[in-house]
Amino acid sequence: MKNQWVLPVPAFAHYVCYPEFLGHYSQFPQHAERRGEGVLNSYNLHLVFDGEGYVFHEGERIHMSRGSGFLFPKGAYQQYGCDPGQPWEVRWVHFDTSLSLPLLEEADQSRGYFFTFDPDAGLTGLFEELSGLSEVYETRNEPRFSAILYEILITLLQNSEPLNGSVPPEIRHSIRSTADRIHSECQRPWTLESMSRLAGYSSYHFLRLFRSIMGKTPNRYLSDCRLARAKLLLVSSDLTVAEIAVQSGFQQSSYFIKVFRQVEGMPPNRYRRTFGS
Question: What homologous superfamily is domain 168-277 in, according to CATH?
Fold first, then answer.
């Protein structure tokens, strides 16, 4: 199977990212590319969902299989292809963007970014939607094209690691599942040790993994969840500030008021008056 679509240049000139050319190949053993410097003036993202293949970069042959991907920046030399005996299933997109994201910066600096990603992170559905819209292109869908591409890049940013320092998908699932549990039960008296036990890691290892995957420490994440719950209760209930503090996981209302003021720039009662119905 070899499906590909070329999109016209968008009529609106201010999208932060936009796809130009995209495709989905499966059981296509002839898939191989070799482009010289300056040939492709767009980013080139490939995600491998099955099969085997390779990328050549600076004289090194890099193996690509399920859960592997690569991103080339504009104008980079590119050489890659599938194993004819085990052709890969690959979804790819060429795109332009003005975004500043770590994976884009890494690709720009090294002239090629190679990574592992979680194939179950929802990327397949996003590419399917992008393909479906491309199949029956309509100009009114321009904003959606841009939004889906942005979601692909952010999902990939949150669910990928460089090849030389990858975190296995099952560990990512474990940490995100723990984060979801903490969010839904943020009123509990969590400690670093209890959160670590829930995830099944030592406190040191959990702290390092959580910060790497979630972008913040467990305690900061817990505080953010508690404040989000408190803000919702402030604008949607008649509970007192002291009652909201307890239901949000703060042991003392005075500490709750102090933290709330530091983060929101106003005390809880003023927040209620400002944003409550």
Answer: Homeodomain-like (1.10.10.60)
